[in-house]
C-alpha cells in the first residue's frame, strides 16, 4: 500500500509526534510506501521522520506563515502558536498552506489511504481536498480539549470529521467523548490504542537500577503535574522517606514564569533533581532502565505512551487515574506494576482546583512511597506493538489491504 500520514505538528517531541513516527516505521517495515505531511518551523531538521519516507513539510516562521508551528496543547515543549490565538487571516494562511502541500503529496505518492493525526484543523483540510481516497484520523485527546476550550475552526472541523472514512480513539473512554463532541455513533469509532518499540524499550538485567529513584518523562509544566510532583517529594522528605533522586526528561513548557517557579521549587528540595531536556529514544530507554519508579502525575492525558515504554523497560509506575487509561492498561498489561492516584477536580479540561491540590499531592506522595517499597517487577509487554496498532488504523479506514 501507499500511505500518506498527516500531522500539523512536528513529528517528534510530543506523544502524537512519536505516534506518527512509530506508525510510519511500521508501515515501512511491512513493505508499504509511506510519505509524511507535517508542520515544522523553517530551519527545523526532519530527522525524526523514519528514513525511507518522503516528507512534505509545511514550513512556519516564513513569509507565508509568519508564526511558529501550531501546537495541539497550549503548552508545548518547543516554541509554538496556540490555536486560540490564530486570527482569521492566520487561520486561512494555515488552511492554504496545508491544502497546497497535501495536494502535492497526493500527486506525488498517489496514496491508497491517508492517515491523519488529531481530529482538528489539518484533518479538516485533508477531508476537503482529498477525494476518492479513504481518510482515517486518530484522536490524541488534545484535539478534543481544543474544541471544548474555544471555537476556532469548529464549523469546518466538525462536518469534516463526520465525513471521514474512519475515526480512531486511543481507548474506550475517549470513544464516548468523540461521539459527544462530533455527534457521531460511538460504534463508528475504532479503539486502536498505542504501542511501543521492543527493539528500543526493553529491560536489561546488566544495568543496575538506582533504588529509590524517580523518573518523570513529559513536558515540564503545570498540566503534567510537575509542581505537584515536587510538592509530593517535599512531603516525603519531611517524613524522612525522600527519594534518592528525581530526574525529569522532556522539554520545558512555554510559559517562562511557570518554568522559573518549577526550577526554584526544585532547587529548594534536598533530593537531587536533574532536568535532562528532551532525549532520543535510546537515551530515554537508558533512563527508564536505571529508574526505580516512573511517575506521571498529569491532569490530562490521552493514553500516555511514555508509561508503556517505562513499564516495558521494567519500571514500576505511579500514574494519575485519568479516564480510560487504567482500563486500557488493565486489558493490555493486566500484571503491570502501576499504582494509581485519584486526580483532583479539574476545570477547563486540565486545570486542577487549587483547594484540592494539597490532598492530591498527599495521595501522590503515599503512592510514590509505596511504589518505591514494592519489589522489582517482571513484566512482558511485547503484546503491545506498533504493527498491531497500524493494522487497526488501516482496518478502520476501510482501505483494501
Automatic annotation (TrEMBL):
It holds the Pfam family Glyco_transf_4. Keywords: Glycosyltransferase, Transferase. GO terms for biological process: lipopolysaccharide biosynthetic process. GO terms for molecular function: glycosyltransferase activity. InterPro entries: Glyco_trans_4-like_N. The keyword Glycosyltransferase applies. Residues 15-199 form the Glycosyltransferase subfamily 4-like N-terminal domain. It comes from the Bacteria. PANTHER family: GLYCOSYLTRANSFERASE WBBK-RELATED. This is Glycosyl transferase. It comes from Granulimonas faecalis. The lineage of its organism: Bacteria, Bacillati, Actinomycetota, Coriobacteriia, Coriobacteriales.
